[in-house]
Design a protein that fits this description.
With about 800 residues, the protein is α+β, with helices and mostly antiparallel strands. It is about 50% helix and about 20% strand. The protein contains 29 helices and 24 strands. It has a four-stranded antiparallel beta sheet. It has a four-stranded antiparallel beta sheet with strand order 8-7-10-9, sandwiched between helices. Strands 20-15-22-21 form a four-stranded antiparallel beta sheet. Strand 9 and strand 10 form a beta hairpin.
Length: about 800
């Protein structure tokens, strides 16, 4: 071909494209394909692509090949859909009924999201950018209180507001009058809070106040009437990451000498920090918070008001790397270290959490207000007289699962309107028909209360169906959503009829397909192996050494089972008034020390229980001497690390049994005395942290060689050999090769469902291709792939 002819051919193609697709259209109006007589614009292509890709950034980064592939899928979708409409599937009564019924649900979901959820969550987020410190006085008032009772409580509330305006101290009035159970501790002070922490009515009133202001009228909530004073208002503090060391008070209401003992301990720890000792190390060794101590005192990230007020106040004053002074709470003394701080989360990052809070605390009230407006717009009215007759027309001992449950409804009542939407009526017969078709109403008890609840649900459903008649005028984008749903139903139905409904699966067809495709059903190279996993590298090495010494997997696991069943509790008994270890106690300590040395993860807790009913100071001193004797023997003589031992002295609780028979009373007293003496003479030792070395037991599997690290390790071994420990999914694993199975064909029985799935996929693709080829002949497809280069261009 000459150069002239080549150029002429190109020119002709460009002219044809211009005639077909148009050259002067704006980018969004460019035609990317023509399916029969219908054009597909670039804008329509982009909208569908974005719904499948997730974000415009991802779509803009797509390759030309990916775009062309999606265009092919899109044209097939258009062809299938045009066939569905040509077959008038949308006119079928059962499909129209499904679309009509679903439209109400779609309207409900659309309006709920647009009018309630989205604005409600955003409003909650905006409110959470501020935190308020407020106090309140609560006057209890039941939501169902009689008017006379309500009047009395309101009168009392206004009297208190008057006193506050006259200068009366808020905390004093709170202590004297508030019904909040916590008022004796906090004097009405609720500390800092942000949106989502209190009931909605309370928060709305509190957040409307400026510092120093008091509500001018009582605030009604489900708990009663509140008088609220704002103490402070400031931007949200965000979150901090902190750790703490706690020395716990021995009693809930400690005596001065108890608090002094705890203070002396925390002061020694504080002094150690000043010399440069690591905070986490001190927490592990000394903190008496069992939850955080093993993690070095780590409390993770937390927001305001996560912990008790004195603790929280000090924690949020710290900057990263700072350590607090000694902080006292009702639990004990604390040292707090702040490791990091970050601002409040962005709206996108906190959206999921906000949605949960909103659903729990705000949604229902907002929904009720919104639905009341909808009922007014759709002119819903209930005929209470007919409702009362309807709910007693059935056998209350039956449910709607009984086939003849509706037969007892009187014929004349069935024709009466139970509810109206303007001039349109919904009869009792219509309600029965709806109840028979709704899956959630198939087991409704035919009691008055249950039927009233179902009438409310049906009324709600019909409100949205009526609203659906006008929703597209108010929200034009809803028409597109409804069209997508309708198209989805039609596409599903036409594919069932043209493809899936024609796939015939039977043994003859499956066997024939299997025989023709034997090489598709293969067992790859496989290994039969056993594996055991350990919690740590050191444990894996210990077990590996046992294997090298000739023990089997099964023997190593059996030994561990014996170890985990070993006793964890021991006692050492002292002579009365003595802190000297007996020979029996020494033998017990040798066992305990050997146990601790065999497993570095174990810790030991020593507990003394002195009888402090008399000679308190002397008994406590003796208990301490005994604890020191046990600990000293373990650490100095038997080589146990002191950091692995914690010890406490916990005086025994003294109680007295109440009996009416003197002999019983005397015998109980003697028994109790002996029990007290026995406990006081012992040091209880508890070995903590004992657990199996193994994560699960032995796993025996037959898997393809390329499945994971275990199978590849096994494949590198000789039969019967085992691997060195290696990391697999966070645990340390050893594998043993039992045997190898080379590549081979599967039998028909082994292929099983795999053959059925492959055949159905093959046959459905064949039928779909025949269908699409036929559609292309009736409605030719012309694609303008060059136009796809303009897709997802940045807006100008």
């Amino acid at each position: 071909m000459s150069l002239f002819n080549k150029l002429a051919g190109v020119g002709c193609a460009l002219v044809c494209a211009a005639l077909l697709f148009g050259c002067s259209a704006k980018e969004g109006e460019l035609v990317v394909a023509k399916v029969g007589n219908n054009n597909v614009t670039l804008k329509e292509y982009e909208n569908l692509y974005l719904k499948s890709s997730g974000s415009r950034e991802q779509a803009a980064a797509s390759t030309q090949e990916e775009r062309e592939k999606f265009l092919d899928l899109m044209t097939k979708f258009k062809l299938k859909l045009s066939d569905a409409y040509e077959q008038r599937l949308d006119k079928r009564p059962e499909i129209q009924s499904e679309i009509t019924q679903y439209k109400g649900s779609l309207v409900a979901a659309y309006l709920t999201e647009r009018q309630i959820n989205a604005p409600g969550i955003k409003k909650l987020f905006d409110a959470q950018q501020v935190e308020v410190r407020a106090s309140h006085i609560l006057l209890s008032l039941s939501p169902t209180a009689e008017p006379s009772d309500s009047e009395k409580v309101y009168k009392a509330a206004y009297e208190l507001i008057g006193k506050l305006k006259a200068g009366a101290p808020f905390d004093s009035l709170a202590v004297a009058h508030s019904n909040d159970p916590s008022v004796s501790q906090n004097k009405g002070d609720l500390y800092y809070f942000t949106a989502g922490r209190m009931v909605a009515e309370f928060e709305e009133a509190a957040f409307a106040l400026k510092p120093g202001e008091i509500t001018q009228k009582p605030v009604r909530t489900q708990y009663g009437l509140h008088i609220i004073k704002c103490a402070d208002r400031k931007p949200s503090s965000g979150e901090i990451k902190a750790s703490h060391i706690m020395i716990r008070f021995e009693k809930q209401d400690p005596a001065p000498e108890d608090t002094l003992a705890a203070y002396n301990k925390i002061k020694l720890i504080q002094d150690s920090l000043k010399t440069g000792t690591d905070f986490a190390e001190l927490a592990i060794r000394n903190s008496q918070d069992p939850g955080s101590a093993p993690r070095g005192g780590d409390l993770g990230w937390f927001q305001r008001a996560r912990w008790i007020q004195p603790f929280d106040e000090q924690a949020f004053k710290l900057k990263p790397a700072q350590v607090s002074n000694i902080v006292r709470t009702i639990y004990g003394y604390h040292l707090i270290k702040c490791y990091d701080a970050r601002p409040p989360k962005s709206f996108e990052d906190s959206k999921k959490e906000l949605q949960q809070i909103y659903q729990q605390t705000r949604f229902q009230a907002d929904y009720n207000k919104f639905f009341d407006k909808l009922k007014a717009q759709t002119q819903l009215s209930m005929n209470d007289k007919v409702v009362d007759q309807f709910v007693v027309s059935f056998d209350s001992l039956k449910t709607t699962r009984d086939s003849a449950w509706s037969n007892t409804l009187p014929a004349d009542l069935g024709k009466q309107a139970v509810m109206k939407f303007g001039q349109r009526s919904v009869t009792c017969d219509s309600v029965v028909s709806i109840m028979k078709t709704r899956p959630d109403m198939t087991s409704t008890p035919l009691t008055s209360n249950a039927l009233r609840q179902q009438l409310t649900k049906i009324g709600e459903q019909l409100v949205y169906q009526v609203k659906g008649e006008t929703v597209e005028k108010e929200y034009p984008e809803f028409a597109g959503i409804m069209k997508e749903y309708t198209d989805g139903i039609l596409l599903y139905q036409i594919e069932q009829e043209r493809v899936w409904g024609k796939v015939a699966v039977n043994d003859t067809a499956l066997q024939k397909y299997f025989d023709a495709n034997r090489d598709k059903f293969m067992w790859p190279d496989r290994v039969d192996f056993s594996s055991i996993s350990f919690y740590s590298d050191s444990l894996a090495k210990v077990a590996h050494n046992k294997l090298k010494d000739g023990k089997t997997f099964e023997q190593v696991v059996a030994e561990d089972s014996v170890r985990t069943k070993a006793p964890n509790n021991y006692q050492t008994t002292f002579a009365k008034g003595s802190a000297k270890l007996s020979s029996d106690a020494m033998k017990t300590l040798v066992k305990v020390a050997a146990d601790l040395k065999s497993d570095a993860s174990l810790r030991l807790q020593l507990v003394a229980q002195p009888d402090t009913a008399t000679k308190k100071a002397q008994m406590e001193k003796l208990a301490k001497q005994r604890l020191e004797a046990v600990k000293g023997q373990l650490t100095k003589k038997l080589g146990v690390d002191a950091g692995r031992i914690v010890w406490y002295s916990r005086p025994q609780a003294r109680g007295q049994a109440i009996t009416s028979v003197k002999e019983t009373k005397d015998s109980l007293a003697r028994a109790r005395k002996l029990e007290i003496e026995k406990l006081a003479s012992q040091i209880n030792m508890e070995i903590m942290g004992r657990r199996s070395w193994f994560v699960g037991g032995i796993e025996n599997q037959l898997q393809p060689v390329t499945t994971d690290e275990r199978t590849m390790k096994a494949d590198s071994l000789q039969v019967g050999a085992f691997s060195a420990p290696f990391n697999y999914r966070g645990n340390f694993t050893v594998v043993r090769l039992n045997k190898k199975e080379p590549l081979r064909r599967k039998t028909y029985a082994e292929a099983g469902t795999e053959v059925s799935s492959a055949f159905q996929e093959y046959e459905s693709k064949r039928l779909e291709k025949e269908w699409i080829d036929g559609l292309r002949k009736r409605s030719p497809v012309v694609e303008n792939k060059e136009a796809l280069k303009h897709a997802f261009a940045p807006s100008k």
